[in-house]
Sequence to fold (260 residues):
Amino acid sequence: MYWLVALVAITSAITLSATLLPGKAQQKPRTLKVLRQQDAARTGQQPTEKELDDASAPIVDLAAAKNKPVDEKRRKKSKKFDHIQDGRIEDTSPSGDFNLVSEGLVSDMPVEMSDLIVEGDVKDANAFLSDDGTGVYSEFTISVSDVIKSSAPVQKHDEIAAERFGGRVRFPSGQLVRYKVVGHGSPSKGGKYIFFLKQMGDGDYRILTAYEMRGNKIVALDGARTYGAGRGDSPYDKHTGKDAQEFKKEVIAAVRGGGR
Fold:
C-alpha cells in the first residue's frame, strides 16, 4: 500500500479516503488538463514539458478493457494496483483528472533502493485497469542498452517490463482522463532513459524514477515538468540540463560509492 488518493475535479475537488502508501498527505486542489501532443502543433507552438508528459501516458479503453478476457499472469500484476478508491471506474466520464498524493519523495538518485539501474529504450507502453477496476497502471517494455547496477541476471539487449501507477482512461464519451501520482511522469515510447527500478515479487519492476537522455542532455522524468512549474521546484530538477554522459558517470560513481 503506497499513496493517498485525491480526485481533482474541474469544478470542485473531492478527496477520497482510500490508501495506496502508508501515511497521510494533503494536497492543494489542482486542475489538470489532459492534452495531446498534436494540440500544441495545431497552434504552431512547441508543446510544453507537461503537454509532452500527458501525451506520453498510455491509454486504456474502458469499454474494451471491461469486456476483454484477462489471463492469470495479467490478473496477478493488476491486483497490485487494487483498492485505489472506494468505487470502480465507471462508464460516466468524471469531471476532472485523478491524482494520488505521495507523502514521501523517492531520492533524486535512489541507488540503494534500486535493485536494477539500466540505460534503455522504451519499446512499448500500455495501460491497464487494476483487477478490481478502481485504478489504472502502465507497463513499459524497456530494451536494455547498458546495465549500471543489477541484483538480477539482466544483461545488455534484454527486454524487461517496468510498471508505474497511472495512465489515461478513454471513456465511452470519448473523454480522456489521466490518472497519476502528483509529480510522477510517464516515460515516452521511443525515448532513452536511465531507469532506477525496484524488483517486484512477480519478476517485473516498479519505476522509482528515471532520467531521459534527450540528445546529449538530461531531462528528469519526475518533478516540476509534470505539473507545469518552473525548474528547481523539485529535487529531480537539478539534474535537468546536465550532459547525459556526465550524468551517467555520476550514477555509476554513486553505485560504486554505496549510493544514496
User: Anything to note?
Assistant: Confidence is low (pLDDT under 50) at residues 1-42. The longest helix spans residues 244-256. Residues 2-256 form one domain.
